[in-house]
């Protein structure tokens, strides 16, 4: 795989976030429709047709691409909403679809062969054999790798596939093996992989109690906050629980954000085609601030790779990303996992 300057792919949960991402230097933005066809199906987020069209016009006028996430799994009883979403994306001028469901991939391949297909992280394709299968069968032109591979494993996948690969550079983490999380479904009966939302708002309740503010998901106590504690959106994987009589603590995962600025030169050398920023559910200010940092970092690392500069992680970059990191903590996640 040839070394290329990675494309910076940024989240857009709203038209405001899209415009700020493009102005801050995103090469591409990814967005979803206001329904269960995308994995961030939260009230107040996402785009209707008019907003997609306006976003596409704005991005294309500035040389940026718009990628549409249709990355939930279609309801086998009624796949029409997913097929119509593919038709809408093509009609509205999206540059590519981000898809996990093989039935949706097949529909897009057969009905809109001009539309580029990216394999979503929700497909959980962690090996070159899996990625090659999707290339041969559906003609995917990019794959987003799950956040469970070490840097050496990413390099190994790149060496054995002709499909350009996209990796996550920054954003929230969770314990799921991408596309296979069942925690929210266990508590609410709604899966993020089909309904598009982890911890559906209709199941979330906040209660003032003498012991603090409780966050519950369909009745399951997820966390209890003290008066001065910041309150995050309640998800089971990041709840604090009493386990075997120990004081309540993060039993599954402590809130923290992936941050791969320190690995950027190695990712470029490995041949990564795109760096993805997580966070369609985050604010436009988050999108603007994180995009600005990663635009500067990729430009600097690419100049270094071309022999015309020297890359190092700048303190102001870390300070800015620290403002937006979950729990104000960073990690390299699985990239530097010591065990196999």
From TrEMBL:
Keywords, sorted A to Z: 4Fe-4S, Hydrolase, Iron, Iron-sulfur, Metal-binding, Protease, Ubiquinone biosynthesis
InterPro entries: Peptidase_U32, RNA/ubiquinone_mod_enzymes, UbiU
Positions of [4Fe-4S] cluster binding: 174, 181, 198, 237
Coiled-coil regions, chain positions: none
Annotated pathway: Cofactor biosynthesis; ubiquinone biosynthesis
Cofactor: [4Fe-4S] cluster
An example Gene Ontology biological process: proteolysis
Signal peptide: none
Xref: Pfam families: Peptidase_U32 (PF01136)
Example of a GO MF term: peptidase activity
Xref: HAMAP family: UbiU (MF_02232)
Known function: Required for O(2)-independent ubiquinone (coenzyme Q) biosynthesis. Together with UbiV, is essential for the C6-hydroxylation reaction in the oxygen-independent ubiquinone biosynthesis pathway.
Entry similarity comment: Belongs to the peptidase U32 family. UbiU subfamily.
Quaternary context: Forms a heterodimer with UbiV.
Protein name: Ubiquinone biosynthesis protein UbiU
Originating organism: Inhella inkyongensis
Lineage: Bacteria, Pseudomonadati, Pseudomonadota, Betaproteobacteria, Burkholderiales
UniProt gene name: ubiU
């Amino acid at each position: 795989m040839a070394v290329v300057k990675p494309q910076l792919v940024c989240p857009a949960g709203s038209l405001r976030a899209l415009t700020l991402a493009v102005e801050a230097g995103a090469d591409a933005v990814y967005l979803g429709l206001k329904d269960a066809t995308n994995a961030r199906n939260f009230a107040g987020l996402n785009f209707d047709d008019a907003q997609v069209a306006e976003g596409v016009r704005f991005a294309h006028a500035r040389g940026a691409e718009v990628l549409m996430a249709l990355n939930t799994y279609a309801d086998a009883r009624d796949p029409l909403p997913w097929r119509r979403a593919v038709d809408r994306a093509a009609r509205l001028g999206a540059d590519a679809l981000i898809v996990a469901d093989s039935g949706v991939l097949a529909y897009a391949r057969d009905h809109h062969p001009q539309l580029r297909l990216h394999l979503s992280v929700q497909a959980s394709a962690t090996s070159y054999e899996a990625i090659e299968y999707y290339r041969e069968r559906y003609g995917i032109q990019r794959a987003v790798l799950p956040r469970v591979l070490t840097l050496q494993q990413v390099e190994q996948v790149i060496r054995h596939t002709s499909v350009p690969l996209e990796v996550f550079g920054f954003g929230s983490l969770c314990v799921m093996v991408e596309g296979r999380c069942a925690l929210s479904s266990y508590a609410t009966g709604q899966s993020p992989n089909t309904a598009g939302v982890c911890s559906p708002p209709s199941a979330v309740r906040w209660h003032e109690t003498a012991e603090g503010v409780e966050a519950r998901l369909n009745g399951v106590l997820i966390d209890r906050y003290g008066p001065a504690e910041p309150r995050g959106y309640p998800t089971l994987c990041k709840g604090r629980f009493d386990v075997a009589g120990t004081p309540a603590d993060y039993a599954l995962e402590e809130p923290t954000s992936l941050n791969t600025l320190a690995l950027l030169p190695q990712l470029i050398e490995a041949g990564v085609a795109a760096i993805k920023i997580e966070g369609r559910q985050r604010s436009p200010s988050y999108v603007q601030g994180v995009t600005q940092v990663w635009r500067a970092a990729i430009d600097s690392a690419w100049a270094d790779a071309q022999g015309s500069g020297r890359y190092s992680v700048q303190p102001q970059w870390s300070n800015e990303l620290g403002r937006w990191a979950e729990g104000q903590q960073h990690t390299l996640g699985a990239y530097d996992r010591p065990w196999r």
